[in-house]
């Protein structure tokens, strides 16, 4: 009873589905059926339904149902709200200097190499594959100042099937490493070209994001131009804010007319409901109020905050101010490309704050689970909330097929453990070996198809 113009069912799963809803940070549906249509959208999710009735309504064969086993479940794909694709080559090293020294010594010399497109292709291929394999279905990427290499990152994300926001980095001030920057005029022209060319490709799940590196790298004139470009084109914006104390003092010196770091971005029209600012460790309550009023989000990057001794963001205080919050790996300031690591480091930092101050209300693993794929409070930090984030009918099917019990895997299970325990064990102990498939907009992108195994230089 369905006609040919309506979408057909591409996948049906039966088993346990775990996600977050507006009401509950963790909802576990057992013995349920989830259908995905051939446009990659969730067609139905129903508990205790008899499959034959659904198969008649939707026109699929019950023999095609994928049955999840006892220690398997589906959960939404994870969203990395802050990652430097261009820094992936040295992730796991270079963690011995504080931010400003770290940028000058390690980061800028490496990023300068992305003028070479073959160099870029190798590393960008690897970072997209590595993050996809680890369950990052959406990544908000910083590339470098090079337009062509940034376009290549967009092309690779599309080809390998990751949902991505890609930012060509903008910076017209770099007194310590002057060979790695652009003029203000070049920055504007190249940002315009980057946006135009990326949009022209019509990739369904890859979009440009306006990316001033951070206030100390940008002239006031450049910040204003970028605010204008973002607002005229209704684009996302990403940058860094209040990551370390030395940086906060530097911004005070560089922008004496602004009353805070937040005020710098506010005055240049860069705080919108499509903005994601990384770190925010030293934001005052007044600054957090500005974030709330403008609808801007914070990307919490705990691995990076600890690894380069930047600070500890009080996420509880951010949530109390009803500021949107997502999690980020901040590779390579953060050494791990895994969002499961970002979740664990988030809990560690919260517990360290409780050790310092027993009045501090520690985050629960359920709250942090929600922030993995759905920013809190909704709508999402990436303003993709109507499209992704959980398993509601009509949303894109971005999902992980988790199997907690794989041979020689990192998790042991014992009799009597139900889905709550299995979920918590996966979140605390699991890794990519437990992620047996990854879907983005209904397309299975992990395991990698054979034809993609030869992409890049290995
Ligand atoms: N602030 C400005 N640039 C960067 C960067 O590349 N990484 C981090 N962690 N902070 C920054
Ligand atoms: Fe960063």
Automatic annotation (TrEMBL):
Q: Care to name a GO molecular-function term for this sequence?
A: guanine deaminase activity
Catalytic activity from the UniProt record: guanine + H2O + H(+) = xanthine + NH4(+)
The source's domain of life comes to: Eukaryota
UniProt-listed GO biological process terms = guanine catabolic process
- A Pfam family it matches: Amidohydro_1
| Assembly, per entry | Homodimer.
Give a short account of what the protein does: Catalyzes the hydrolytic deamination of guanine, producing xanthine and ammonia.
Q: Which family does it belong to?
A: Belongs to the metallo-dependent hydrolases superfamily. ATZ/TRZ family.
What NCBIfam families has UniProt attached to this entry?
A: guan_deamin (TIGR02967)
Q: What is this protein called?
A: Guanine deaminase
The organism of origin for this protein: Danionella cerebrum
């Amino acid at each position: 009873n369905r006609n040919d113009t309506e979408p057909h069912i591409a996948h049906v799963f039966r088993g346990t589905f775990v996600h977050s809803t507006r009401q509950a940070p963790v909802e576990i549906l057992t013995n349920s059926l989830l259908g995905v249509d051939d446009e990659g959208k969730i067609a139905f999710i129903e508990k205790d339904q008899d499959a034959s009735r659904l198969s008649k309504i939707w026109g699929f064969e019950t023999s095609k149902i994928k049955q999840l086993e006892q220690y398997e479940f589906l959960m939404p794909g994870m969203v990395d709200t802050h990652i430097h694709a261009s820094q992936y080559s040295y992730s796991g090293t270079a963690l011995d200097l504080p931010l400003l020294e770290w940028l000058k010594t390690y980061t800028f010399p490496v990023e300068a190499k992305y003028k070479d497109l073959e160099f870029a292709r190798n590393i960008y291929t690897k970072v997209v594959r590595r993050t996809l394999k680890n369950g990052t279905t959406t990544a908000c990427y910083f590339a470098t100042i090079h337009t062509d290499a940034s376009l290549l990152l967009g092309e690779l994300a599309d080809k390998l099937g990751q949902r991505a926001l890609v930012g060509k980095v903008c910076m017209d001030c770099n007194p310590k490493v002057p060979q790695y920057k652009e003029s203000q005029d070049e920055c504007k022209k190249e940002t315009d070209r980057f946006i135009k060319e990326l949009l022209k490709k019509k990739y369904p799940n890859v979009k440009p994001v306006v990316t001033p590196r951070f206030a100390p790298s940008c002239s006031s004139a450049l910040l204003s131009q970028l605010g204008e470009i973002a607002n005229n084109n209704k684009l996302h914006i990403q940058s860094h804010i209040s990551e370390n104390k030395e940086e906060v003092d530097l911004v005070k010196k560089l922008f004496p007319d602004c009353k805070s770091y937040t005020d710098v971005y506010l005055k240049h029209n860069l705080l919108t409901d499509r903005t994601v600012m990384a770190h925010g460790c030293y934001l005052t309550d007044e600054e957090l109020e500005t974030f709330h009023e403008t609808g801007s989000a914070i990307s919490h990057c705990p691995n990076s905050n600890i690894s380069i001794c930047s600070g500890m963001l009080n996420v509880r205080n951010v949530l109390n101010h009803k500021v949107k919050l997502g999690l980020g790996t901040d590779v390579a300031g953060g050494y791990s490309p895994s969002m499961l690591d970002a979740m664990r480091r988030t809990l560690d930092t919260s517990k360290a704050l409780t050790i310092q101050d027993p009045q501090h209300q520690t985050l629960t693993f359920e709250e942090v689970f929600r922030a993995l794929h759905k920013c809190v409070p909704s709508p999402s930090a990436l303003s993709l909330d109507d499209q992704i984030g959980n398993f509601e009918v009509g949303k894109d099917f971005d999902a992980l097929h988790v199997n907690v019990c794989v041979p020689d895997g990192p998790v042991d299970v014992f009799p009597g453990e139900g889905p709550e325990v299995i979920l918590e064990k996966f979140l605390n102990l699991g890794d990519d070996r437990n992620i047996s498939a990854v879907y983005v907009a209904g397309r299975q992108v992990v395991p990698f198809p054979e034809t993609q195994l030869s992409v890049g230089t290995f």
